[in-house]
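If I may wish for something, please sit down with the protein I am sending here and say whether tokens and residues agree:
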Amino acid sequence: MTVESTAARTPRRASSGGGKRASASAKKTASPDKGAAKGAAQGKDAAQGGEPELVQLLTPEGERVENSEYDRYVADLTPEDLRVLYRDMVLTRRFDAEAVTLQRQGELGLWPSLLGQEAAQVGSGRATRADDYVFPTYREHGVAWCKGVDPTLLLGMFRGVNNGGWDPNTNGFQLYTIVIGSQTLHATGYAMGVAKDGADSAVVAYFGDGATSQGDVAEAFTFSAVYNAPVVFFCQNNQWAISEPTEKQSRVPLYQRAQGFGFPGVRVDGNDVLACLAVTKWALERARGGEGPALIEAFTYRMGAHTTSDDPTRYRRDEEREAWEAKDPILRLRTYLEAQGHADEGFFAELEAESETLGKRVRDVVRTMPDPEPMSIFENIYADGHALVDEERAQFAAYQASFADAPVNAATGGEVK
């Protein structure tokens, strides 16, 4: 169900009139926008205390439900496609679990787990094309997987051996962003450039519910709406911004915030991989078609800690987690695959073996990552060099040279021969 402002129902470039004109044209708009009036009314009810409508194609019990607005976006999925989605989620979860264990063993300095958010990430990630560009936060391990980034490359920054580990332009997947919300501005600027270039592609900006309280996100919404940028804002509302619940950050459901900026907002079941795939495809198609930005709120839950330095037992109840465990995104798709006869025990056993192989590879790669050269911290800062960086490099080289077991040439930063 989309919830739109009247101005968003026609492309910005094609309309300069007021709300009445846009409302009139909206009555003739094809699905899914024909449900906008109904959605707006339901959005109003939600703001007054009712429950907002959730786009869902697969129930927690693994039953397929029809949706006249979004079914067409997953109508061409084959049994093989469904198995791929299941495999993506299983292997992403296995990689994530291995990373958590490695951190507990002292191999990583920190790790932000995605446990419970696999469907939101895999569904939206698989909706993108190869030429679409993604701007992640620091938890989008499943999206990275879907964009073809080797998962072991995600670990270098958290081990402290590099500042990223992969070339963003190789897979259309930007480096992780630790600063909360800043990537939404980067994504909007990039999308504005895509539009000026006339390229047939779109941009996706990922962020969490906590980031919606940041000014950067509001500014990104403003610029993207005004310049009709082909960007999809994908908010993974996992209920907790570290220890702060969503209800203490917003008096309305997060997807409704899009109305005030002039573009549509949709709340989707973030534990339903089919719904996340369908809604993201819809948003990307309208972005590529010149209809501007959209906001997707994937309503999901962070099953683990915010990061491995966090203790969620200090601020949330066990009953809450148990309720969400019943909505597990992987279990519901497995139930559906088995019920439809799309996967047998052989498939699941093969996947289990592949999962163990992935875990071993991750362990081996992390433990054999070479330590970076101490002076490499000063590389790739300014393209043409900088006097202050040169001064700091010399100071650090002199400090390194003070250790008897690691003589360094203070002038060049290299080892003394």
